[in-house]
């Protein structure tokens, strides 16, 4: 059986019941589930104080399970970036660990990439720097049945990715990009977390990449402000393509007067030369794909159909047969 460890690197789990439900569901899917000893620790809004969460991160890396799945996001990894043992994280991946999550885990994923690249934007990302943007344990596998339960697309894509079989994801975008074909390093994640790394050594200097972004609880004007900051820092123009996921759980204001996510995208397209695609099923929403952060990908558009594919060789060196997830 595949050993899957549940750990809490950021926000506190207010209740233990969802974590127990996660373990039960993942076991039913065939995983051998292990819960880190401090997964339910509490300190203010965090899953334990900084020392506790840092120790958990390093403990999981040392154990090197097949899958290290974060229980939830929230906030917390920013406080530990200067003390994470990045070579230890890379070594765990080399030993076969797939680190999985989103939201606050974006910081771990991009920090690892930045450590690997070490200021060399043209350097090829190695297998020991690839992590997975995907579900969070309690958000996606701990949702009660009367609240929607586990999304089938999220579940199946996660299983396929963790087995090593997933080599592409597909989705529909807006018209106007037919024939687009680009290749580059896939990177990104939560927009606010990406922006928080600007001008730090933890933002990977990726040229010619495919940047994907999502966020939650952010009004379109705040999304536009963050995207413009990335543009003005030279990040957007340096990419081959930008792929926007879901920007969820925000409310219109009376004075928006037509200002919306659509107008945000229109404005960004007017200031950057990089194609901006929408519609990626990823973010703080029930239905999400799993994406290999740091992998070399090819993005193809045919009509309005987008395919992001990769030849994924895990650190263990095993090749896998291709599969598409729509």
Commentary on this structure:
The protein has 326 residues and is an alpha/beta fold. Helix 2 runs parallel beside helix 3 (86-94), helix 3 packs across helix 4 and helix 8 runs parallel beside helix 9 (261-271). The chain has helices at residues 17-28, 50-63, 86-94, 106-117, 137-141, 152-163, 191-196, 220-232, 261-271, and strands at 2-7, 31-35, 67-70, 98-101, 131-133, 168-172, 181-190, 210-216, 241-248, 276-278, 291-293, 296-302, 305-310. The longest helix is centred in the N-terminal third of the chain and has 14 residues, at 50-63. A 7-stranded mixed β-sheet has the order 6-13-12-7-8-9-10. A 6-stranded mixed β-sheet has the order 2-1-3-4-5-11. 29% of the residues lie in helices and 22% in strands. The chain is globular, with a radius of gyration of 19 Å.
Quick description:
This protein is of the alpha/beta class and 326 residues long.
**How many β-strand stretches?**
13
In CATH, the architecture of the largest domain is 3-Layer(aba) Sandwich
Count up the domains.
2
How confident is the prediction overall: mean pLDDT?
94
Spatial extent as radius of gyration: 19 Å
Number of helical segments?
Answer: 9
- List SSEs in N-to-C order: EHEHEHEHEHHEEHEHEHEEEE
The general outline is globular
CATH topology of the largest domain: Rossmann fold
Helix content: 25-40%
Determine the structural class based on helices, strands and strand pairing: alpha/beta
Subunit arrangement of the protein:
single chain
CATH class category of the largest domain: Alpha Beta
- Record the strand order, biggest sheet: 6-13-12-7-8-9-10
Distance between the termini: 27 Å
Strand content: 15-25%
Which residues sit in consecutive blocks of at least 5 with pLDDT less than 50? 314-326
Largest sheet: 7 strands, mixed
According to CATH, the homologous superfamily of the largest domain is Murein tetrapeptidase LD-carboxypeptidase, N-terminal domain
